[in-house]
Structure formats: structure tokens, C-alpha cells
Design goal:
The protein is an alpha+beta fold and 500 residues long. The protein has 19 helices and eight strands.
């Protein structure tokens, strides 16, 4: 990996195109490399994982609305791309939109956390849609997905967006555009223009993840994917983008991020170097914000070992000592009263670690539907326990969260439970059980089991087996077989209509 120094340039300072970050990202994307076997295996895992969580959300309102939009507005004169749960072939930007919402709806797919947040599998719907529409094969799709992961992870390692209340999809637009560029074998010049446009159109505030969180949380990455498809299309037609998009005097860094004096160190693969960033990412066993994963496992363990902890009458207070990110994003440090509101939206509850810890402690389990049901959130003993739970930032957990050493990087925390009888229970967990360093790391077997579990009752058994067979043959799929990376089940209609 080579580290690139990125800073703001005044208008009178000439920054050659080849020295701009967008160009360096484009150069990575323009190179065609065959992935290492372990990288290929992980791409297959994540394609299965995306489909699993999409299947589980097929009947949910945001997914129904996005699918209906795609079917109504996405008529295509060309080959078209598939949409989860639909027999229709639609234009690729609309397939990216509908499938992006389905993948993101339950907050249940992969994650990478460093200087910023990300869900790198959000790259897959847009890249897959363009692959299907343009008749590319599985090998091209594989290379495109590897690039999408590489660019997003490298940006997330080095450039913090959330500190300035910019939503993390601002790293997704450029990475998806780069991945599509690799898929299509485009030259660096075209990819450079697409990355600039994708970034320019996908910067938005983090209010979508603050307070009463709305259904837009699922749409935000889908919108970034849709914008990436459209940006590549425009760039292929010779259209250009704002430049330098990152480093310009009125650019993203100067006005949206760390300002005119900012400097970032961005690592990117050198020419000929394997793209391995996907191996540093991790998926979710539970449908909740990633920073809740380890704490769900800790709560389950404590509740099962000490049932008396489930009764709020026995509890004086529960304090979760954890990282800065966890405390301020999903903890009491966010100062969002909605995080303690039993009438809050599902999207809000999956960003409330006090709620999540209370339910996992009482139930000894976590379920993507039952754990968020209104009647579950409103249970009086749960509300009483929930409101006794707070978070505190702990400097050591923050340090470990940001560590670049995989052996000590952690996303958990320490819980201190004070009981009314004066005793105290203290326990901690560093990483989720499903993490590569956790108690039960996810491998192909677990990804398939997750798909089967979420598809049960939604897809017919032959459809489950058909999809799993196609996904596991991804590198060898022909252009026509790429259309098999879709699932068909019995899903309701949207029920509501808009303009389309």
C-alpha cells in the first residue's frame, strides 16, 4: 500500500490531475487484476449475505415502495437488471435503487469501522445491476466488487465524515463508481470523471441517522448507488465533473470536512498489488447497528447466566463503558430522547444501545423482527430496565476502536451493573461472537445458514437451493447466468402509489 498525502489547494495553486485523490482512486479502479482465492471466497460470502438480508425485508414498506418505483419508472430498452422479489427487468440505476434499499433495510449486512463508518456491501447492488444490464460475466462482476470494497475501505480508513455530520454514503458514491469502472474495463480518465460526479451528488448531512430515524436510512446508500450508475453513464458520454473535487478551494474537504488546513493520509494499493480490503470487513449476526453486535452477545450471555438481571426491580443502574463512536452515535451521549422512547421507529431502536441491551439481556436472544415489535418495545418491565441503562465513553475502548492492529481493534465495551442489594456485576467483550476474532467466526457455513434462516417461509426450498448454487459459482457465471443472482418469493404489492 502507498500512502497519499491529501490537502486543500488554493485556486492559484495548480494541482495536476494525476496528483488528485479522485484520479488516484480511478487508477486503482482502471487496473484489471484477478483476485486472490480468499478474496474471491469472501465476495461470494457477501453476495449470499446481501441476498439473505434482502429476502428478510422483501415485504417491508420501504422495500415495497422502492421495488414499485423501479418497476414503474425503470422500464428499459436494453437488457435490464433484476430486482429482488420481482420478475421484471429494469434499467440498472433503478435496480441499484430497489436492491440497495432491500439490502440496507434491516441494518443486517457487513460493516467496516475506522476513521468513519461504512457498509461496504452497499457497493454490490449497483455493480451487479450494471453487470447484468451490460452482459458482463461473473469474473468481471467479481473484479468490480473487489474494487468497490477496496476504495470504500481505504477512504473510510483515512477520512472522517461523521465528525462533520456528513453521512457515510459520501464514501460510497465514489467507491461504487470505481467498482463499475472496473467491471466495465473503463480507462482512468472516464472513471475519474465518474468518481467526481458521484462524490459531488452524494454528500448529505447525518440528520438521517439522528433523532427520530426515518425510512430514509435504508434509502441513503441506495441513492448513492443509483447516483454512481448515472455518474458512470454520463462520464462514458464524455461529461466531466467538478475538479479537484476533494482538494479544491471550494471542494469537499475545504467546506464539508476538516477545512482549508486539512491533511489526510489515504492508503491505496500500488500498481499490481492485490486488493484485499474486503478481508478487513465483517458481517453481522444480529440485525442492529454494528457497534451493538458485541454488546448483544454480552447481554445474551449475562441474561442466560444471571436471570435475576432481567428484572428491573433488582437493578439500580447499568452503565456501558464503551468507545466514543458507540457512546455518541447509539448511546446516551447522542442526547436523543427518542433512544428511550417505546414508541420510536424501528430505525431509531436499532440505533439505541440502551434498548438493544435491555431486550437482549431479558430475552437471551435477538431477532430481526420480534426484538423490534412495538409490543416488545412497550413492555413495561423492559421500559423500566431500558431507562436505567446509560453509556459512558472510555478512553481505552476508544483507543482500541481506532487501533490499526487487528488483534486489539475492538467494538465492544465493559458493563457495570449495580444491583439494589449493593452488589455489582462487571463483564466485558471486545468483539462480536461472529467477528473473525470472536467466539464463533462467520465462514461460508454461517453465511449459508443465515441465508436459509432468513429465507425460511419467504422463499420455496428449490429457490433457496437455486440461488445458493448460483452464488457459489459466481466467478464462473456467464452473462446470462448472472441474472440468476436474484430471488423470487411471494411478496405483497406496494399498496401505495406516487408519481410513477
Amino acid at each position: 500500500m502507498k500512502t497519499h498525502d491529501v490537502r486543500v489547494y488554493r485556486s492559484e495553486e495548480h494541482l495536476p490531475r494525476e496528483d488528485q485523490l479522485a484520479w488516484k482512486l480511478a487508477e486503482v479502479a482502471a487496473e484489471q487484476l484477478d483476485p486472490a482465492p480468499e478474496v474471491t471466497d469472501m465476495v461470494i460470502n457477501r453476495v449470499i449475505d446481501n441476498a439473505a438480508v434482502a429476502v428478510a425485508s422483501l415485504g417491508r414498506a420501504p422495500v415495497l415502495a422502492a421495488r414499485d418505483q423501479a418497476e414503474q419508472a425503470g422500464a428499459t430498452r436494453g437488457r435490464g437488471a433484476t430486482v429482488f422479489g420481482s420478475a421484471a427487468l429494469v434499467s440498472p440505476e433503478w435496480a441499484a435503487w430497489a436492491n440497495g434499499v432491500a439490502v440496507r433495510e434491516l441494518d443486517y449486512h457487513d460493516t467496516f469501522l475506522a476513521a468513519d463508518y461504512s457498509h461496504p456491501a452497499d457497493n454490490i447492488p449497483a455493480i451487479l445491476a450494471v453487470a447484468q444490464h451490460t452482459g458482463r460475466d461473473g469474473g468481471a462482476l467479481l473484479r468490480g466488487i473487489v474494487t468497490g470494497y477496496e476504495l470504500q475501505v481505504d477512504l473510510v480508513r483515512s477520512i472522517c465524515l461523521h465528525k462533520h455530520k456528513i453521512d457515510h454514503v459520501a464514501h460510497l458514491g465514489p467507491s461504487a463508481a470505481g467498482g463499475i469502472g472496473t467491471l466495465l474495463g473503463l480507462e482512468a480518465e472516464t472513471i475519474y470523471q465518474a468518481i467526481g460526479q458521484a462524490l459531488h451528488t452524494t454528500t448529505a448531512t447525518r440528520q438521517s441517522r439522528k433523532g427520530e430515524i426515518s425510512t430514509w436510512k435504508a434509502h441513503a446508500p441506495a441513492f448513492a448507488g443509483k447516483m454512481a450508475v448515472e455518474a458512470v453513464d454520463r462520464a462514458m458520454r464524455g461529461q466531466t465533473s467538478p475538479s479537484p473535487i476533494y482538494e479544491g478551494e471550494d471542494g469537499v474537504i475545504a467546506w464539508l470536512l476538516d477545512g482549508p488546513e486539512a491533511r489526510y493520509q489515504v492508503p491505496l494499493p500500488e500498481r499490481g498489488e492485490q486488493r484485499r480490503a474486503i478481508l478487513d470487513t465483517y458481517t453481522k449476526e444480529h440485525s442492529a447497528e454494528y457497534q451493538a453486535q458485541a454488546l448483544i452477545d454480552l447481554a445474551r450471555r449475562l441474561g442466560n447466566a444471571r436471570p435475576e438481571l432481567r428484572d428491573p426491580a433488582n437493578i439500580e443502574r447499568i452503565v456501558l463503558h464503551t468507545s466514543h463512536h458507540t457512546h455518541y452515535v447509539i448511546g446516551s451521549g447522542a442526547n436523543d430522547p427518542q433512544k428511550y422512547d417505546p414508541d420510536a421507529s424501528r430505525e431509531t431502536l436499532d440505533h439505541s444501545i440502551p434498548y438493544i441491551f435491555a431486550v437482549a439481556l431479558q430475552d437471551g436472544a435477538w431477532h430481526h423482527v420480534a426484538s423490534y415489535a412495538p409490543e416488545r418495545a412497550a413492555r413495561p418491565d423492559t421500559v423500566e430496565l431500558w431507562r436505567k441503562i446509560t453509556t459512558q465513553e472510555d478512553a481505552e475502548w476508544t483507543r482500541r476502536y481506532h487501533s490499526t492492529d487487528p488483534a486489539e481493534k475492538a467494538f465492544g465495551g465493559r458493563v457495570e451493573i449495580d444491583l439494589v442489594d449493593g452488589t455489582r456485576v462487571v463483564d466485558e467483550i471486545a468483539v462480536a461472537d461472529a467477528h473473525p476474532l470472536g467466539a464463533r467466526p462467520f465462514a461460508r457455513e454461517q453465511y449459508i445458514a443465515k441465508f436459509r434462516m432468513l429465507a425460511d417461509g419467504v422463499l420455496a426450498d428449490p429457490e433457496i437451493e437455486r440461488f445458493l448454487d448460483a452464488a457459489q459459482r459466481l466467478p464462473e457465471l456467464t452473462a446470462s447466468e448472472l441474472l440468476e443472482l436474484n430471488v423470487m418469493g411471494d411478496v405483497p404489492s406496494a399498496g401505495t402509489k406516487g408519481i410513477f
